[in-house]
Amino acid sequence: MLSRIAQIFFIRMKKVVIFLIIVTNLSCKAQQILTLYTGTAPLSLDVLDNETASNSKSGNERFFITSVTKPTLTVYLPKKGNATGTAVIICPGGGYNRLSIEDGGYDAAKEFAKAGIATFVLKYRTKRDSAYTDFSKAPLLDLKQAIDMVYNNAKKWNIDTSLIGILGFSAGGHLTAMAATTFETHKPAFTLLAYPIISFLDSLTSKTSGSRGNLLGKNISLEDKIKYSPELHITTTTPPAFIIHAEDDKTSLVGNSIAYYNGLIANNVAAKLILYKKGGHGFAMYNKVEDKYWLPEALVWLTLNGFYKK
Description:
There is one protein chain. The relative contact order is 0.11. This protein has helices at 4-29, 102-114, 138-152, 171-182, 211-216, 222-227, 255-266, 295-304; strands at 32-35, 52-55, 63-66, 72-76, 87-91, 98-99, 118-123, 164-169, 191-194, 241-246, 271-276, 286-287, 292-293. Helix 7 links the parallel strand 10 (241-246) and strand 11. It is of the alpha/beta class. The termini are far apart. Helix 3 crosses helix 4. The chain has 2 domains: 1-30; 34-304, 3-Layer(aba) Sandwich (Rossmann fold).
């Protein structure tokens, strides 16, 4: 048997090793987090920060944050020597009411960074009563600010400004498509859309989707429904898009992606649409129902269109 002194020594060493492992893991997860604005964000009122985090109540263990009024940009850079010059800004989903910022944000960013792509997770503002002068414009303003920040720091982050794109999940896909069809300066080079909310027209809005109401309120005019439906505003200068969607999605009807894809093709814009038979909504990077991980196909598409070189 070990002596009492030896036992104490091994116990203490075990604690030291555990501590070092914890510190190492924390340091690996640590990322640079940039605030988008100095002081109160445009269109925001000076309210207390009431941001909260919680797990989904639907049993899928997804992590959400709500009441976001202090937007940030989290930086994930590839390892030295592995940078490709390509960059992607990620807009998580959540129906403009919350952000699914872990699986459709940080986890996705790590995978893109491993592929040599500088990646940025945008924590844009979400719906909160009595916190804005006009919430409908706030998320898009946050995305514009994020794109400007990436452009302004491109040299420091080894980014080619002609290769900056946006990835949007669900409502983040709507935000991405709005940027693609409305931004005149710093328009994204390409877009990646995962089960996106695209249209705010009645015919393509699911009864289970709260995105339209959360962004625009209860009484929405036909004019605004048209204004906030990117598929109606595609032109020959709209950025190319890689789109994935499951046909059995009940939250974002698959017609959203089909309409956007058809609009791009009609305007001779490069586009690829991948439809899964099953998968539902919110599968992030991996559709476990069909055992499909879509990043490799996205990288092939980016390569073929000149946006990525391994």
